[in-house]
Amino acid sequence: MRRFIPLLLLAVALATGCTRPPYAKPGAELSAVEDDYTDCYSQASLAVNTPPFPDRPLSVVDSDADACMKERGYASKIRMF
Known about the structure:
Order of helices and strands: HEHHE
Shape: flat
Helix content: 55-70%
Distance between the termini: 27 Å
Number of helices: 3
Structural class: mainly alpha
Strand content: under 5%
Number of strands: 2
């Protein structure tokens, strides 16, 4: 039982950090980053789900969303806290 609580806390901390967008921009608030990421990811998903369909849709969505975020001035960062 003693091992369970620290593992649970670690899992919750990691899960919380992984829900944030993996991008950063100096001076941008978290809500603005989340809005831009949602917009870029939605556009990329729409493009992938419109014919002709790509062979690897998940990697195409990720690369298109990444390109969109970089166009908006964001840089990639680690998804921890």
